[in-house]
Design brief:
By secondary structure, the chain is an alpha/beta fold. The chain has 34 helices and 22 strands. Strands 12-9-13-14-16-15 form a six-stranded parallel sheet, sandwiched between helices. A five-stranded parallel sheet has the order 1-4-5-7-6, sandwiched between helices. Helix 1 (12-39) packs antiparallel against helix 2 (52-69), helix 1 crosses helix 3 and helix 27 (677-688) crosses helix 33 (787-797). Bound molecules: thiamine diphosphate and magnesium ion (MG). Magnesium ion (MG) is lined by residues 170-172, 201, 203-204, 334.
């Protein structure tokens, strides 16, 4: 990487300043947490918390990185509970306010864990759920490669420098399986420009970790093609090892169990001396080495692990002159420099006010000057400021980039067959997009965890190819073996084929869906998977939404409609996930013309960033956008021939429309979602024989109907008396005595709330138990979502005479 000059050697003057900044980061992070817990008045009297020990563990590493090694193009996922360090660093760089620090963990203050969306100081990647931020850096690196391989590596006529994607990783974080799933995928995809810096303090939340983990980590990383750098000894220790007797000291350190080392760190200099003398004190040279140091010097020496040694860190980071993925295992002490350093119970430990007073004195901070940026530092403020002014990391202007929106046509072309499933429709829509040459199609990137073909992405991939940094031909094609699928990899391919791990799909979508903000190049990611396996990656999906990544998730097949596949693959709860997941608008269309409308909307919606004109027609805040979840099915159903009017389009996007308007004498409305449309239609037909004016409500998005409804309720409570949601308008003319039968191939609670909108009686039908194998009619009968069940439900809640009359009798 020729553009980098962050060398391994540092001038003594710069090193001295970095040493002061390291103290400052430790002080500010500790003080921020202390202030939140002991000084600020908190309304509820609850402990606020924060992690002084976990932050202290990373103070040196983060000082070296942020004030020396990082370049503006580098991106970092910070270990969640080291958030106070990050905010302290940004505060020193003038990018975080004192106000936010004083309000750490408070309402609208600096966030407990770094948040892209909620913090105001340029967080690159949100973290919180351990393991996910780590994998995010790996996938972000792949996305950077994707963007560059597609020729989008210039900005204002200049080549955009390649960044490193860096994770600061807690050692116990490496217990999370998603990290290893990501590593394997990274190996397959030729990962580069990725650093994981492990804070190897040998402590987790509960206790001290097993012995020898570093060897497992080292072997694992090397197996996956990573370079590994182990920073075990600081420069003081290295110098001591060169003294006579030094080798014996090193051997003792190497053999010392983690628990014992931690306990001695906690106990301090006198304990170190006693233990060392007991163990190796009878060997002339090493005895003299120990005796030559006072207790505090001995303590400093034994605490001087690689991860707390600025020269060792600067050297290790500066030596990397290649783009291979690199893992740094940095030995650290949890709570370094604080009174509970090394104590196994220190994870949530907070310094007491008395301990803080001692710490304050040691840091030379005068009361009332705790937040002063240079208070207590042993360098002139102008020198410190001059140093901060030239910190490379802070030179690049705003880190949040912007990319123009790609225009989406109002209508997407698709040929609709008389009978079709939504999944087939999806394949056909993407095939049409792939055939064209639009800028829209160019920016679409698809991904799938080994279900590309079975989710109907095949035609798209045949036309647009698979992505890899190095081309790879399809041997079957070259050997002229007939196949439906052209499996050719190239730098310009537009499909990223993943192994089966759904976690990886979601984290990749999270990385692709932030490309506009990270790379300044917009991508329109579409990921496909089987609907039930959303649950497998759910936390990663939540994570992607939390950091406002933008993507379209296509989940198919779903529900009972993959009937012979059986209970293991039938999804029940996913429609409720679609409703409850913040940042994700869920749709479940029944017909392909609906899907075409929704997909066009989706491609536009994922690009919105709040700049659009505010429309409160539905109280959905559509101008802010978000991600999209489409729940599709493999069940072919008879399509409706109809003109797609602007009004119908809008209603489909808003979440529902009347397929058959309920007349004035209506007693029953059937409201359905998705693939059970034929059953709902058939049931209304059956009921028409002895009931008049049965209504049929098509619900394309329970999620959006529900969100609009609750938003309108809230708006009215706040005095906007005219606020009306789409579902309220749809149900406005349904007589009060009417019953509503709701039905979907998913959990009945998804639509059960419809009765609360206008006070109608509801009988919600759906699936509540694990599936059986069988044909679709058998299963729909078994679970009570076929036409007969709908009719029976209607009979039960609207038995032929007006409900008003029944009420009067009651
Ligand atoms: C997925 C998930 N599970 C549990 C937690 C709760 N948690 C927060 S930190 C932590 C232990 C972290 O230990 P380590 O990564 O070694 O960091 P250290 O505190 O030692 O710096 C746990 C279990 C979490 N944040 N995320
Ligand atoms: Mg740890």
């Amino acid at each position: 990487m020729p553009e980098r000059n962050d060398s391994p050697t540092i001038s003594p003057a710069d090193l001295a300043i970095l040493g002061e900044l390291e103290r400052k980061v430790l002080w500010l992070a500790s003080w921020t947490i202390h202030h939140a817990n002991h000084i600020r008045a908190n309304a509820d009297g609850l402990k606020v918390g924060g992690h002084q020990a976990s932050s202290a563990s990373l103070a040196t590493i983060m000082t070296a990185l942020y004030f020396r090694t990082l370049r503006p193009q580098d991106r970092v996922a910070v270990k969640p509970h080291a958030s106070p360090n990050f905010h302290a660093i940004q505060y020193l760089l003038g990018k975080q306010t004192r106000d936010k620090l004083q309000n750490f963990r408070g309402y609208q203050g600096a966030q407990s864990y770094p948040s892209r969306t909620k913090d105001s100081d340029d967080v690159d990647f949100s973290t919180g759920s351990v393991g996910l931020g780590v994998a995010q850096t790996l996938f972000s690196s792949l996305v950077q490669d994707y963007v560059r391989a597609h020729g989008w590596a210039e900005e204002n006529g200049k080549a955009r420098p390649e960044g490193r994607m860096i994770a600061l990783v807690g050692d116990a974080e490496l217990d999370e399986g998603n990290i290893f799933e990501a590593m394997l995928e990274g190996w397959k995809q030729g990962l580069r420009n990725c650093w994981w810096i492990v804070d190897y303090n040998r402590q987790s939340l509960d206790a001290v970790v097993r012995e020898g983990l570093w060897q497992r980590y080292e072997q694992l990383f090397r197996n996956f093609g990573w370079d590994v750098a182990i920073l075990k000894y600081g420069s003081l220790q290295q110098a001591a090892f060169r003294e006579p007797g030094g080798e014996a000291l090193r051997a003792w350190i190497d053999a010392c169990p983690n628990q014992l080392y931690s306990a001695l760190v906690f106990q301090g200099g006198a304990a170190w001396r006693k233990r060392l003398n007991d163990d190796i004190g009878d060997q002339g040279d090493v005895s003299r080495l120990i005796a030559a140091r006072a207790d505090d010097e001995l303590e400093r020496l034994m605490n001087n692990l690689g991860g707390h040694d600025l020269p060792a860190l600067i050297d290790a980071f500066g030596r990397i002159d290649h783009d291979r993925p690199t893992c740094f295992i940095c030995y650290t002490i949890k709570g370094y420099g604080l009174p509970f350093a090394g104590h196994k119970d220190n994870h949530a430990g907070l310094m007491t006010p008395a301990q803080m007073e001692t710490f304050r004195a040691a840091m030379d901070i005068r009361p009332g000057h705790e937040w002063d940026r240079f208070e207590g530092l042993r360098k002139a403020p102008e020198h410190l400021q001059a140093f901060l002014d030239q910190v490379p990391f802070a030179q690049g202007g705003p880190r949040r980039r912007k990319a123009p929106q790609v225009e989406v046509p109002g209508t997407l072309a698709v040929t609709i067959q008389p009978e079709m499933s939504t999944q087939t429709g999806f394949g056909a829509l993407l095939n049409e997009l792939a055939r064209g040459t639009s800028a829209l199609a160019e920016r679409i990137v698809t991904a799938s965890p080994d279900v590309t073909v079975s989710t109907n992405l095949g035609p798209w991939v045949n036309r647009r190819g698979l992505f890899a940094r190095e081309a790879l031909a399809d041997t079957f094609k070259n050997e002229r073996i007939p196949s439906f699928f052209n499996w050719e990899f190239s730098r310009t391919g537009q499909h990223i084929e993943l192994g089966i791990a759904e976690m990886n799909l979601f984290i990749l979508l999270s990385a692709l869906g932030l490309s506009h903000a990270i790379n300044g190049e917009r991508l329109l990611p579409i990921g496909t998977l089987y609907d039930p396996f959303i649950a497998r990656g759910l936390d990663a999906l939540n994570y992607a939404c939390y950091q406002d990544a933008r993507f379209i998730l296509v989940a198919t097949p779903s529900g009972l409609t993959l009937a012979p596949e059986g209970g293991a693959h039938q999804s029940i709860a996913e429609p409720l996930i679609g409703m409850a997941q913040d940042g994700l608008a869920a749709f479940e269309p029944a017909f392909v013309d609906e899907l075409a409308v929704i997909l066009a909307f989706a491609l536009d919606y994922i690009q919105k960033d709040g700049d659009g004109t505010e429309s409160e027609r539905n109280w959905l805040r559509d101008e802010t956008g978000g991600s999209i979840y489409l729940r599709l099915s493999t069940r072919p159903i008879e399509q409706i021939r109809r003109a797609m009017t602007a009004e119908l389009k809008q209603a489909i996007v808003d979440g529902g429309y009347w397929q058959r308007l309920p007349g004035p004498n209506c007693q029953v409305v059937v409201a359905y979602t998705g693939a059970v449309a034929p059953e709902a239609i058939q049931a209304t037909g059956l009921m028409a024989e002895d009931r008049r004016d049965v209504g049929l409500l098509a619900v394309t998005s329970a999620d959006r109907l529900n969100a609009g409804w609750t938003a309108a309720l809230r708006a009215r409570e706040r005095g906007l008396v005219h606020a009306r949601s789409h579902i309220e308008r749809l149900l406005a003319d349904v007589p009060g005595h009417c019953g509503i039968v709701t039905v979907l191939d998913g959990h009945p609670a998804t639509l059960a709330w419809l009765g609360a909108v206008g006070g109608h009686r509801v009988r919600p039908l759906g699936v509540e138990h694990f599936g059986q194998t069988g044909s679709i009619p058998e299963l729909y009968r078994h679970y009570g979502i076929d036409a007969n069940a709908i009719v029976a439900a209607a009979q039960a809640i609207a038995p032929g005479r007006p409900i008003r009359h029944l009420r009067a009798l009651g």
